[in-house]
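[Q] Does anyone have a clean structure-token version of this?
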Amino acid sequence: MTTCAAPGCDNPVPRTHRRGRPAIYCTPDCRPSRQPGAGNNTLTVDMIAEEQTGRGRNWTVTLRRGRHAVIIGQDLGHFAATLLAQQLRQLLHPRQQGGHG
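[A] Here you go.
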């Protein structure tokens, strides 16, 4: 018997004799599509501080939608990462920013 694929769920997955792909979740509630915010298509911009170097910290700017992410800039200084993240946020959400577009 296999274990549920949902994070933190150790319940066994019931075996069915139906055609198609086998189930990987124990109940419909464990499916990610049933989780709050799972259908969230909101794009977010994250700045993550990486390891300390002789010049200071390196920063990574990431564009994220749900569980998917794309690295936009890596090994950036703080000023460059902040500016890039701000420009991406203005591009993605022009009405939410206080600037003149």
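[Q] Thanks! Anything notable?
[A] The longest helix spans residues 78-92.
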